[in-house]
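ok trying this again, last paste got cut off
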Amino acid sequence: MDDTRSTLDYYQADISTKKHPDELRAWWFKGLVLYDAFKVKFESRTTNLEKKQDILTFRFARDEQLGPFRVDLKDDYKFAWSGLPSTVQFATKEAPYGFLLLSPAWVASQSKTVGVNLRSFVEGGGKWPIGGGDKNQLKSILEQIEDKQLRDRLSDLLSPLFG
């Protein structure tokens, strides 16, 4: 699972769930919010309209003995990103593995609760969108700019931020 990456190309990303976590190779890096990508195994999803909840129950693919964990997908963007590039919300029994983007606050809180550093389960590709210090992210940004002068100038400005 160590070679997971992010991609700006929707068509190269794994936007559907998979039978096995090793089949998840790239998550879609699409916007400007700060979440980390995790490979997770779907367990259940419970919607309660009266309480206005949409509870996703899952386990981390890197250690399925931990958990289960729960997060409310409805309005709780401070903990989890419920739409794409997260994919676990589309899981089926046949393909229970997907990506779930979780906030550092949720990860820190749950790490304390279970006594395990869940940050160690973060998949490659950096934070969504930009993982500070990740030179591959800088390269991805610069590849999108056709104007060489502008690209060089932006590289000069951003390079110190990416180590």
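PB: full thing came through this time. Helices lie at 104-114, 135-143, 148-158.
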